[in-house]
Amino acid sequence: MECVPEARSLRVAAEVRLRTDAIAAFRDRDAWFKFVVATERDVDEVLEIQAEHRLASSRILLMPLGMRREEQQARMSAVIEWCRRHGFRFSPRLHILVWGPKRGV
Predict the structure, then answer these.
(1) What is the pLDDT of residue 103?
(2) Sign of torsion, CA 3 7 10 16?
(3) pTM of the entire predicted model
């Protein structure tokens, strides 16, 4: 099971994108929490969410932002370093690496 909270940078109100009851329900079912990040500021937000909702570092995945293979590859080293630093896991956005920005694949 996975839960993918929306980033603050998407300009969606917190009460819509971060529903405490839903996050707690997923956390209590050992869900994975996936965050697409581009900057260290994004990682700071992940750390805030982690602390507020008591999420285990081992259940958090960071994924590099990018709708093109080149964009993801440019961010991978930084995202991997942030994962090491905070005990998170790394995952590429594999569908983007394989198919690019196509929808429905």
Answers:
(1) 82
(2) positive
(3) 0.83
